[in-house]
TrEMBL record:
Molecular functions (GO terms): ABC-type transporter activity; ATP binding; ATP hydrolysis activity
Name this protein carries in UniProt: ABC protein, subfamily ABCH
Membrane topology recorded in Swiss-Prot or TrEMBL: Multi-pass membrane protein
InterPro entries the UniProt entry points to: AAA+_ATPase, ABC2_TM, ABC2_TM_bact-type, ABC_2_transport, ABC_transporter-like_ATP-bd, ABC_transporter-like_CS, P-loop_NTPase
Domain ABC transmembrane type-2: 506-735
Membrane-spanning residues: 354-375, 541-563, 583-610, 617-642, 709-730
Upper classification of the organism: Eukaryota, Metazoa, Ecdysozoa, Arthropoda, Crustacea
Spans annotated as Disordered: 269-318
Keywords: ATP-binding, Membrane, Nucleotide-binding, Transmembrane, Transmembrane helix
This protein's GO CC annotations: ATP-binding cassette (ABC) transporter complex; plasma membrane
Biased composition (Polar residues): 269-282, 290-301
Subcellular location: Membrane
């Protein structure tokens, strides 16, 4: 099916298949499909700087096939990526179809160019139809036409060669005047290779298309009209295959290539690229804007190029760089049609990865439910060793028949009755055995009463302030707790103190005294906000909601966008004329829809199912949570912009998440950190957001309160800052060398 499609698509395509193309009129008077003069391109900086293109010239006649040959690493892909504006030159000029690529008239990137990168650059989980529909929409092809051309299968179920054919089809589908194909025949069988070349020949002969094709199979390039043999960042010779074979008097193009390389001095391409780049830049004259004549050879055209003074040269280079980097408001604005196409594509990608979709959709709600179910509950079955020396050993170590009236007898047993049921009391004969059990982890601690506890307690009560120290010490209940677990330690502490308060109150009432006399002279009245018995989950809810929404937005968008970049899908869209701002808005827009769903399900679980109270406006709480999710999305896009692979991006998201968890006031109040760290903590994207949400949920505050509006203002500032930074990084990385 696909091979038929490849054969037929370009034959049936005509501009009428396009809904409307802004650019469909390349400079018809221009006889050169592509013209490159004195191109230099470097990668890296300092000692790692390496020149990949070194004063390269290339002349491709319109309507011809140009085979670009050269060893691995000589700069073929770099050159092609400069032609389609994925990269920019350090110096030198390029013209495609008579215009500078990237200029409004050129149609490159856009409808005039079909680009097939080395990598497949296809969505695995799309069918062939969906793939071509997506790219067809980007190129504004009519839906009816797209539909008529296709039948269907998932890309991931196709063989490697078949996938390459689909990738080829994508490059041809919109009937571009210029085809730039980076190793289209690699990994395909000889029959299909033959068919692809036949097709290219028909495209150039019958339809006047200009084709530039790179290949490692030198002999297949015989079908090209002209061949450029490239090495060390330069085109060494450029002529038709017949002329090359005749002039060198050799039987094959491969022999010609070897001879050309030997003549070049036999320097390896690695050595070439390691050469000092400064010298190559200086050697490369900068071309004036000249229109070459049809009959001129590459050398003749080069001769016409005016040589400039070094100052003029550097001014020109700077002005080229300025022109490329200058801010153009119109071209920086998103295109609604393209954004619509990208949003549909992103939705389809997500639905096709159904497992990922389900997890990302419901994970925040599941995490919230888990949080409520697992955290904040009271620990149960905590064993405590009881060593009660008031009891007579011969009668056993367990209290029986304790009196609850006003009698000072066996007060140790009376106290033990008030202890919370979550504590299991295990009697031990003596202190050393009980401590040993504690050390072995059999019990969480020991409660010890001395032999005359009741008598000493009575004396202390009756003497009051005149009680002696030894009497006070002997009337104490001695408690040892295994404090290795802070939460359990805190619960045991609380329950044992509460038990003593209740014991003392009970005894005072039984003896006809005022029970309040047993309390410490401190009173905690009703709290200003919240309740006396505020649950742990309630206190943690604001930090948790924001941590969950922020991190899920961050992780999801980072994974999706880095994946697309790695597979060459972003490059392919850029060559199709999609602007980076469109890609940004398409991803951010789709992820934000996901964030809205995630936030809603999280709120339902937190406030409706687990009934965590919200004392303020739910709408305000939703809004600040969504803004925090948006910061996560922006951070994800920034991470994806600076990382070239998924691993790097994953490390960076993790490195970002942990400080936020620790310092954002989620686990511990910011006020509890060292002063210097508090300042850093305030700079984190979530700190003000969490404080804002806490003020809304627990205090019921509105937007007029500083803690609330600061949360919104800081969130907006982060969103603006991160968006600007991301777009700058993407732009800088494209133009950087
Ligand atoms: N982003 C980059 N940063 C640094 N070096 C790069 C970058 N991209 C390419 N290079 C280097 O530039 C040189 C040319 O690479 P390029 O991909 O253009 O070669 P090629 O001729 O297309 O090779 P192949 O035939 O194997 O595809 C290589 O040495 C490569 O390592």
């Amino acid at each position: 099916m696909t091979e038929d499609f490849i054969e037929e698509s370009a034959d049936v395509l005509s501009p009428s298949h396009r809904i409307k193309n802004e650019i469909n009129n390349p400079s018809d008077s221009c006889v050169y499909g592509v013209l490159v003069r004195n191109a230099t391109k470097t990668f890296g900086s300092g000692s790692k700087k390496c020149a990949v293109l070194q004063g390269l010239n290339m002349t491709v006649k319109r309507g011809s096939i140009y085979g670009l040959l050269g060893p691995s690493g000589c700069g073929k892909t770099t050159l092609l990526s400069c032609l389609v504006t994925l990269r920019s030159l350090n110096s030198g000029t390029i013209q495609v179809l008579g215009h500078e690529p990237g200029s409004p008239k050129s149609g490159v990137p856009g409808p005039q160019v079909g680009y097939m990168p080395q990598e497949l650059a296809l969505y695995d989980y799309f069918t062939i139809k969906e793939t071509l529909t997506y790219f067809g929409r980007l190129y504004k092809l009519k839906a009816a036409f797209v539909k008529s051309q296709l039948n269907d299968r998932y890309v991931k179920t196709l063989s490697g060669g078949q996938q390459r054919r689909v990738s080829f089809a994508v490059a041809l589908f919109h009937d571009p005047d210029l085809l730039i194909l980076d190793e289209p025949t690699v990994g395909v069988d000889p029959l299909l290779r033959h068919s692809i070349w036949n097709h290219l020949v028909r495209q150039s002969v019958d339809h006047g298309k200009t084709v530039i094709v790179t290949t490692h199979y030198i002999e297949e390039a015989r079908q090209a009209n002209s061949i450029g043999m490239m090495r060390g960042g330069r085109v060494l010779v450029e002529d038709s295959p017949e002329n090359l074979i005749r002039d060198y008097g050799l039987p094959s193009l491969e022999d010609v290539f070897l001879k050309v390389c030997l003549k070049d001095g036999g320097i390896s391409s690695d050595e070439q690229s390691a050469e000092d780049v400064t010298s190559s830049n200086e050697a490369a004259p900068v071309e004036t804007q000249i229109e070459p004549q049809p009959s001129e050879s590459s050398a003749e055209v080069s001769n016409k190029i005016g040589k400039r003074t070094p100052n003029e040269k550097s001014d020109k280079i700077k002005s080229v760089a300025r022109k490329r980097q200058s801010f153009n408001l119109k071209s920086s604005l998103p295109t609604p049609h393209v954004i619509g196409v990208l949003l549909r594509k992103n939705a389809l990608v997500m639905i096709r990865n159904f497992g990922v979709f389900l997890v990302s959709f419901f994970l925040p709600a599941i995490q919230t439910a888990l949080f409520n179910v697992t955290l904040g509950g009271e620990p149960t079955y905590l064993k405590m060793a009881i060593v009660n020396e008031e009891l007579n050993l011969s009668q056993g170590r367990v209290c029986i028949n304790n009196t609850m009236d006003c009698a000072y007898s066996m007060l140790s047993c009376r106290y033990l009755q008030y202890i919370n049921d979550n504590i299991i009391q295990i009697p031990y004969d003596n202190v050393s055995e009980a401590l040993e059990a504690g050390r072995n982890g059999e019990v969480w601690g020991m409660i010890h009463f001395g032999q005359n506890f009741t008598e000493e307690y009575e004396i202390r009560q009756s003497l009051g302030d005149s009680a002696k120290l030894e009497n006070i010490l002997r009337s104490r209940i001695s408690i040892n707790i295994d404090s290795s677990n802070q939460q359990i330690d805190a619960f045991l502490n609380k329950w044992l103190v509460e038990a003593f308060r209740d014991f003392s109150r009970g005894l005072l009432i039984a003896c006809g005294h005022e029970p309040e006399a047993g309390y410490m002279p401190i009173e905690f009245t009703d709290p200003v906000y919240g309740r006396k018995d505020t649950q742990y989950t309630e206190a943690m809810s604001s930090g948790l909601i924001i941590a969950i929404i922020y991190s899920s937005s961050l992780i999801l968008i980072t994974g999706v966008f880095v994946g697309e970049r790695q597979q060459g899908l972003v490059d392919r869209s850029l060559v199709a004329g999609v602007k980076i701002v469109d890609i940004f808005v398409g991803h951010v827009g789709f992820q934000f829809c996901m964030t809205i769903c995630q936030t809603l399900t999280t709120f339902v679980v937190m406030f409706l199912i687990f009934k965590v109270p919200c004392h303020g406006s739910v709408a305000l709480a939703l809004l600040i949570t969504l803004l925090q999710g948006f910061i996560g999305i922006c951070f994800g896009m920034f991470t994806a912009a600076i990382c070239d692979n998924t691993n790097g991006a994953l490390y960076l998201t993790q490195a970002n998440f942990l400080p936020i968890l620790l310092m954002g006031g989620i686990c511990w109040p910011v006020e509890g950190m060292p002063q210097s760290l508090q300042k850093v903590a305030r700079f984190l994207p979530v700190t003000y957001g969490i404080e804002c949400l806490r003020s809304i949920l627990s205090r019921g505050w509105g937007i007029e309160m500083p803690d609330v509006y600061m949360g919104f203002l800081v969130s907006f500032a982060w969103i603006f800052g991160l968006t600007t930074l991301t777009l700058t990084v993407i732009r800088y990385r494209k133009f950087s060398s």
